[in-house]
Amino acid sequence: MTLTNKTILITAAGQGMGAASARACAAAGASVIATDVNGDLLGNLAGVAGIETRVLDVTKADQIAALAVDLPDLDGMFNCAGVVHHGTVLDLTDDDWDFAVNLNVTSMVRMCRAFVPGLLRRADSQGSAAILNMASMASSEKGFVNRTAYGATKAAVIGLTKAIAADFVAQNLRCNALCPGTVDTPSLQGRIASAPDPVQAEKDFIARQPMGRLATVDDMTPTIVHLLSDGSRFVTGQTVLVDGGVTI
Questions:
Q1: 56, 110, 125, 129 — which has fewest CB within 10 A?
Q2: Are 145 and 208 in contact (CB under 8 A)?
């Protein structure tokens, strides 16, 4: 599970799973580049050993390209940025759809296009490099109410992950997708707070988890570190469900 001597880039690292992953990867020995569109949130990681922060809007191709030029070759990358749209297909405007596709899928394409050359160089010299993409149990794994755009885009992430894995498997660059259950993050708490009945909304989220509780970020980080480490060097093209049994 060690990430010693590895350079790992994480997007959406200002809070939630991104921030927890940055801390966990640094604790495992990595040099972490923690990025987020919100520079104020990145302040939460200020002074954490092993972490440097960069402001990055992953919907901006020019910012991604500039960062790739500025950074050393990576050993690993966690594409964590994403958005959850609430609603059925009848509630989905073209703008909603375009934004979800751009942030949840196109940003990952651009990140991979920019950083895969360096990852391949590290894989060639070190024998292994890894990409981890944030997908979801709400994807091709399972349909959920009011998750049309989210489920469709996360299914696309799984397809993208498998395609990248197939393209570079012989060059020791692995690519996997993390499919979490319902995780207690600021994003989730925001969706709960905006519900007509927040108390009932939280009960509903918990009720769909067979373990009877929401996941915590610390339930996710061991798997994230593992999939970025050489401990998973024979694992690629997989959708790794950490969902508390929802998809049993």
A1: 125
A2: no
Say which of 3, 103, 148, 150 is annotated catalytic: 150
Strands lying side by side in the sheet with 76-79: 51-55, 31-36, 7-10, 76-79, 129-134, 173-180, 239-242
Catalytic annotation present for 225: no
Counting residues of the chain whose pLDDT is more than 90, the rounded percentage is 97
Q: Which residues contact 138 (CB under 8 A, 6 or more apart)?
A: 144, 147, 150, 151, 154
Q: What's the confidence (pLDDT) of residue 43?
A: 96
Q: Taking the complete model, does pTM exceed 0.90, yes or no?
A: yes
Strands 129-134 and 173-180: parallel
Q: What is the pLDDT of residues 50-68, one digit of tens each?
A: 999 999 999 999 999 999 9
CB of 10 closer than 8 Å to CB of 78? yes
Write out the two tokens for 77: 């990358």
